[in-house]
Design goal:
With 428 residues, this protein is an alpha+beta fold. It has 13 helices and 12 strands.
């Protein structure tokens, strides 16, 4: 991620002259010293001018500010529209200076995954925060925490007969087994309690369950339940329905963000520094791309606070109308015009605009993100996604089953982000 910085020179003797040039807007900033070897101070703030006035202007109550101001020779900044963008920008600047140490400075720990050990002759699942790229197809996450991943893994195993032991098995009929084999909760490959083919079948079912967040098992159970009900076998249908509910409860422990690591794709919509734009980010191939800016010019943004046009009552957060200002009647000499449409544009153009933004983000520049960047971007996405919904700014959309993006849902998300941004905007 490349960050374009604006900058002004800073003279400690004329601090006010430089500080008055700074905007009073959210930004990520860097304070550079006189020497190129000096490490910059990098931070983020909701009010750039106010923060740097407190840091750099002389103050009798805070003499240390004089020491900091005396070492600064240049102020650089990048305006941001959201905390999500600020954190991503701050990491990019820190990573350029400190490399992998930027992870520690921003407390970006690797998220937890449930990993399917498919390379083992007798596969099992474990929880890890260090899934390898070589087995990215078999790592499912990220989860909100290691405890959340462990709970999901434990509950999922209760639906199958996969082994829980960590031993490298060498099946032997003389093996004593374990408590899970005694409770009939494991196929017991340790003492050849099943054939290798039967264990491979069960392992494949577990892998499908993880890859589809339980949908593979739900489809089978729902079909059997409906068939039993159609045949008037209501007791069997009730038992199958109880199993469906149990699987659904396990599925609920894995939010939509939980996907095979190398197939995780998402679009994040955030407010932009410009009121007439929304910032679009794409998470793909292990890293975040963007922001690409989606212009909201020509969209009618509904008032989210209005009862008659609330987003709950009317999910469409925009009302596209053809961009025509009126057509003069031809051949009559009349100056009368047909009703104007106030510069709004049709939905097809809005969809094309969104598709163009996504195509730009999906362009492959041939670069491969480093392990540091992958960990940071995944941690930032996880941290933002698992916030309480009332505190989570912005929107997220996942691809449909066929891999295509839900353009209409994205446009509705743009409308909600833009409406909230306009409602909270303050004059600068």
């Amino acid at each position: 991620m490349s960050v374009e910085l604006q900058s002004v020179p800073f003279d400690p003797a004329e601090a006010k002259a430089a500080l008055t040039q700074l905007p009073t807007a959210p930004a990520v900033f860097a304070l550079y010293g006189a020497e190129a070897k000096d490490e910059p101070y990098i931070g983020r703030t909701p009010n750039l001018r106010g923060r740097l006035e407190r840091l750099l202007q002389p103050s009798a109550k805070h003499p240390r500010r004089l020491q900091l101001a005396g070492r600064v020779r240049r102020i650089a900044w990048h305006l941001t529209g959201s905390e999500f963008e600020s954190l991503l920008t701050q990491f990019s600047l820190l990573e350029d200076v400190y490399g992998a140490k930027a992870l520690e400075r921003m407390h970006l720990r690797a998220p937890a995954f449930v990993r399917y050990l498919g390379g083992n002759p007798y596969p099992r699942i474990v929880v890890t925060n260090k899934p390898s790229q070589r087995e990215a197809d078999w790592a499912y996450g990220p989860f909100a925490s290691r405890a959340a991943a462990e709970r999901f893994a434990d509950e999922a195993l209760k639906l199958f007969l996969l082994r829980r032991c960590t031993d490298d098995l060498n099946p032997d009929p003389s093996h004593p087994g374990c408590v899970y084999s005694e409770m009939k909760m494991c196929l017991a490959p340790c003492y050849k309690g099943c054939t290798d083919e039967r264990y491979a079948e069960e392992s494949a079912a577990v892998q499908d369950f993880l890859a589809t967040r339980g949908e593979s098992k739900l489809v089978v159970l729902r079909g059997e339940r409906d068939a039993a009900s159609a045949n008037l076998a209501f007791e069997d249908a009730a038992a199958l329905h109880a199993q469906v509910q149990k699987v659904e409860a396990v599925r609920a422990l894995a939010p939509e963000l939980v996907q095979p690591m190398n197939r995780l794709r998402a679009v994040v919509l955030q407010a932009s520094a410009n009121l007439d734009e929304v910032a679009v980010f794409l998470f793909e191939r292990g890293s975040l791309r963007g922001p690409a800016l989606f212009s909201t010019i020509g969209m009618r943004i509904q008032n989210e606070q209005s009862g008659s046009s609330s987003l709950f009552a009317q999910p469409m957060a925009l009302e596209p109308v053809p961009d025509e200002t009126g057509i003069r009647e031809q051949g009559t000499g009349s100056n009368e015009q047909e009703p104007a449409t106030h510069g709004r544009i049709p939905r097809t153009m809005l969809e094309a605009r969104m598709e163009a933004v996504l195509a730009k983000l999906e362009e492959d520049d041939g670069s491969t993100p480093s392990a540091t960047v992958r960990q940071a971007h995944l941690a930032l996405l996880k941290r933002w996604y698992y916030r309480p919904e009332v505190k989570r700014e912005g929107e997220i959309c996942f691809p449909e089953g066929d891999g295509h993006w839900p353009i209409k849902s994205l446009l509705r998300g743009v409308g909600r982000v833009a409406a909230k941004r306009l409602a909270t905007a303050k004059p600068q």
